[in-house]
Amino acid sequence: MVAEDTETLWLDAHHVISFIELVELSGLPETKLRELIEEDVVAPVNPETTDMHFRTECISIVRAAQRLSVELDLDTHGLSLVLTLLQRVRSLEAELQAARTVLRSNYP
Questions:
Q1: I need a surface site. Which of 44, 57, 102, 108 has the fewest CB within 10 A?
Q2: What's the whole-model pTM score?
């Protein structure tokens, strides 16, 4: 059995990381990450500055992008579409869960 190195990160919504850190943590080439930023898949905290910083929640998005890119051999546009749809599904699931919670509290 081979031991596998794992990395654990605490994804604090208030913590930010630099573009270089995001590149290192994503496993994506810098050019592909820049393309995902242009496609609005990940957004810098302040898009007006040249020194881009990102919320740590972007790490999970870019890691998913890296996995999907390799596993499905997607170009940036396909990757952008898949990630956008996955994000929408998560959002709808959260809304559904909230609605179920309200219904359960109103109808015990």
A1: 108
A2: 0.74
